[in-house]
Amino acid sequence: GENVEQHPSTLSVQEGDSAVIKCTYSDSASNYFPWYKQELGKRPQLIIDIRSNVGEKKDQRIAVTLNKTAKHFSLHITETQPEDSAVYFCAASMNYGGATNKLIFGTGTLLAVQP
Amino acid sequence: DAGVIQSPRHEVTEMGQEVTLRCKPISGHDYLFWYRQTMMRGLELLIYFNNNVPIDDSGMPEDRFSAKMPNASFSTLKIQPSEPRDSAVYFCASSLPPTGGDEKLFFGSGTQLSVL
């Protein structure tokens, strides 16, 4: 089955700096890669996702890149702000024609943005 | 819609007791998932349902765990007997089918389970 590894487990940056979180996946058939943000004591929420037919996607200060050959994808946050502090989870799944929606998550990255 | 609703928010029980967690998915969502969150393992998928039918329960750790979905608006996750190592936050999530390109998971607020 699919296995997703995520690094680093903790990341501390200064406000305004960039943050990068990296994930690798094992199943080359995976084709959907979302990122979820979980603030302290809250539920995880989707912040951005990418499909295997594109290499990069941006949404304001966040971007995700995908390298299918190497089977890894990354989350990039620019101009970090204190409110970006949270746990970030990457995930991977194989979705074919609605046959499945099984998301496997990485172990999470605790991002701390220091003011 | 009020979103995915889980109950109870917190559960404290003693080892050996039966624990039942409940979930009401968003109306119209065909998929329902149960995840367990711990510091060591992050978010682990336990089981998921499609149209009330269990599709993959390979993540259920032991026979002590069971899940049901008797109808489209209700699911339970039961642990019997409970053990201290079951202590975790249990999340329920629901989603639309991936065919429409909108398979975003909507999580409930979670149940914090403590087994003493």
Give a brief rundown of this model:
The complex is a heterodimer of chains A (115) and B (116). Helix content of chain A is 0%, strand content 53%.
Question: Can you put this structure into words, describing what you see?
Answer:
The complex is a heterodimer of chains A (115) and B (116). Chain A has 115 residues and is an all-beta fold. Chain A has strands spanning 4-7, 10-14, 19-25, 32-38, 45-51, 56-59, 62-67, 72-77, 86-92, 104-105, 109-114. Helices cover 0% and strands 53% of the residues of chain A. In chain A, the strands form two sheets. In chain A, strands 2, 4, 5, 9, 10 and 11 form a six-stranded mixed β-sheet that branches. Chain A has a five-stranded antiparallel β-sheet with strand order 1-3-8-7-6, with no helix packed on it. In chain A, a hairpin with a 4-residue loop joins strand 7 (62-67) and strand 8. Chain A is globular, with a radius of gyration of 14 Å. The model of chain A has no long low-confidence stretch (mean pLDDT 92). Chain B has 116 residues and is mainly beta. Chain B is 0% helix and 53% strand. Chain B has strands at residues 5-7, 10-13, 19-24, 31-38, 42-50, 53-56, 65-71, 74-79, 88-95, 106-107, 111-115. In chain B, strands 2, 4, 5, 6, 9, 10 and 11 form a seven-stranded mixed β-sheet that branches.
Quickly list its features:
heterodimer, A: 115 residues, mainly beta, 6-stranded mixed β-sheet, 5-stranded antiparallel β-sheet, 0% helix, B: mainly beta, 4-stranded antiparallel β-sheet, 11 strands
- Note poorly predicted spans of chain A: none
> From the structure provided, what is the oligomeric state, counting identical versus distinct chains?
heterodimer
The proportion of residues in beta strands of chain A is: over 45%
Q: Low-confidence segments of chain B, ≥5 residues, pLDDT <50?
A: none
The overall average pLDDT of chain B, rounded, is 93
Beginning-to-end CA distance, first to last residue of chain B: 36 Å
Order of secondary-structure elements of chain B: EEEEEEEEEEE
Radius of gyration of chain A: 14 Å
Structural class of chain B: mainly beta
Q: Which chain pair has the greatest contact?
A: A-B, 25 and 25 residues
Q: Tell me the overall shape of chain A.
A: globular
Question: What structural class should be given to the helix and strand makeup of chain A?
Answer: mainly beta
Order of helices and strands of chain A: EEEEEEEEEEE
> How many whole angstroms does the radius of gyration of chain B measure?
14 Å
Tell me the helix content of chain B: under 10%
Estimated share of beta-strand residues of chain B: over 45%
**Tally the helices of chain B: what do you get?**
0
The DSSP helix count of chain A reads: 0
Q: The biggest beta sheet of chain A, please?
A: 6 strands, mixed
| Annotation, overall tally of beta strands of chain A | 11
Helix content of chain A: under 10%
